[in-house]
Amino acid sequence: MLISAGSLVYEISLTRIFAVQQFHHFAFLVVGMAVMGIAASGFLIAIRPSSPPPSLLALGYSGAVLLAYLIINLLPFDSYSIAWDRQQIWILLLYFLASGGPFVFTGWAVGAALANASGESHRLYAASMIGSGVGCLMALVGMEYLGGEGAIGLSIALGLFAAAVFSTRLPARAGLLALGSITLFIFTLAPHWLELRLSPYKPLSTIRLVPDAELTYSRWSASSRVDVIESGSIHVFPGLSLSASGGLPLQAGLFVDGEGPQPITNLSSDDPALHNLASHMPGTLAYILRPHGTALILNPGAGLNPLLALASGVEHVTIPTDDPLVTDVLESAYLEFSQGLYSHPRLTVSPRSSRGLLSLSEKQYTVIEFALSDSFHPVTSGAFSLSENFLLTKESVIQAWNRLSDDGLLVITRWVGTPPSESARAWSTLIAALRETGVSTPQSHTIAYRGMRTATMIASREPFTDDELALVRDFLQENGFDALVLPNLEPDEVNRRNVLPEPVYHQLYTNLLENHETTIRDYPFNLTPPRDTQPYFFHFFRWRQTSDVLATLGKIWQPFGGSGYFVLLGLLVLMILLGIPLVLAPLYVLRRQSTAAVPRASVLLFFGSLGAGYLLIEIPLIQSLGLPLDQPALALATVLFILLLASGLGSLLSPRLSLRPALLVLILVIAIVTIALPTFVQRILPLPLYGRIALSIVILLPLGLLMGVPFVSGLAHLEKQSSRLIPWAWAINGALSGVSGVLAAMIALSLGFQATLFAGGLIYVVAWFAVPHLTRNETRA
User: Fold this and answer.
1) Which residue among 53, 197, 423, 655 has its CA within the 20 to 30 Å range from the CA of 402?
2) For residue 20, what are the domain limits?
3) pLDDT tens digits, 211-224
């Protein structure tokens, strides 16, 4: 159990390290690497039945984790530059092999025990699964209290402790325990040579190159890493008009997982200098149109937009806690620097996330603002496009619309680029949401305008009046902003100040307003409104771009992540190429040995289906529950913990259950979950976190129990006919799981979570059909 627990600590820690070091947590890839490592262990057991002693395997696991961390940390792999630097492909391959190495030793230890279980395979498998589940909880605790480097040290230490347990010599046992404790201590201290190194393209890396940049705060939590940099060069006011006069205030830059900066501003809300700046910010128009109202600021970052709202005279501002660590920084370490912003009498900090606040129906607001707190991303690798964003979905905008008062305003600001991308998609999402809520003429309820770097769109519950439109035109004139969409907009009002060769934004926004579906269909990039079941706001790639992407690969910037999608395809091919020898080589060895006449095709089909099906269910559940559980890391740990724990219990029950009926019930449960999951997620959103976790367990527990039955039952049937085939089944299961992990991410990106779950259910149907062929000879006997 110790080595299984350590393996899951390593697996979850790896997702957090990738999130900080690169541009995405790559949970699907980490899970895929884990099961591919297990497949490799099945290959080794098949060709070398006499396995090394468990103590040596546990020691090898710890050494492999250390080596993997050093390679990940010291090699200059960067997902951002893979579009133009071919060397990165080979470094990625080395990353992949190194990261998967520890799982080979884990799988070897468990697989060897299963191969020699003599009727006890269900108990051994259960112990492994339960140990893995405990490791999920240990990972969260380790990240929270030991940091990212410390969590890796914890994983290494658990391997050393496992080696000590298996050791038969007392001096060796004492030495291994001491070595594990020392390793944990050193990694927790994180000396410079062990400190996690970030991609040079990460904003935190670039800001630290500024001569006067000083890192004043750095801390890990289970869900993020927050760093604060102080420098005289930090000035962040997204969309600030060029008409603004006067100097810019002192700001500190807050970075979450190396992304930012989110500005912490050293001004109080009643400072005249701040009032002057606020009057030149694009989102302030909402507070001019609705003075002295109440505001809900979503995605508040480090507090800039709430501060601007207070300076604009808002009666009361409510903000969510999207990251508890960010809130803690502003309530403690930087409370004085921010002039007491988070203790302001007109500011309420809710413990709920942005979507959690929107799901509550008891309060309405005059203005709801989707603040622009994330930095601009010219996405070349596509890694950022893989990120789920549940705030910028159609369901989120509809919830915000329903939380507005009768005269309320909804405000969204996004970055502009050429050609139009993320701001155009936000506009597309807003229009779709309004139409779905019954607004038949969004032309009279919406306005949009742009500056040099940002575009802002405002939707009103009531049609804009002539007096309000006069205020809008005055605001745009004073700040040098260009109108994109206004009721009764004249041609000479378009593209006047920030002049483009063609008024592409005005044309696109107007087309989306008047011919929404046709414009989306004909536009070169994907502007389809994201949904909670497919929340990839930054994924703009379409297959029609393929020829252009391939022709320009490595030559120009690709701001729509086209090459990144092909990196996913490359990872899929890599998984297949690694999996083929892991499956076929043991078969070649087994052919030379005396084995019972078990239909090998049925073994391949059954255990391959189980491996592929498991990941096609697990991955979309992790992604879907990221919404109600607030953080990807918590969703990953919760889903893995429950599924692994329940699968372990299911394996204990497997001797009492018939295989085909159990599979049939599992397929039925998957179908129910696939259909009900979107509604389930929406229903539990208003609940407190413990309620959301508890109800998530309710939906995960039966799935996990039933998913734990087939594999061990299949091994039991195989053991009765030819136990020599068990390592091969282990390899098949892991190899197909690795392939399906990447495939699950691709299906979710293209078709959504429900389609991925549906695919998983179909794969389990294949396993159901394979059962009679797997047990044919046993039945005859």
Assistant:
1) 423
2) 2-195+561-780
3) 999 999 999 998 89
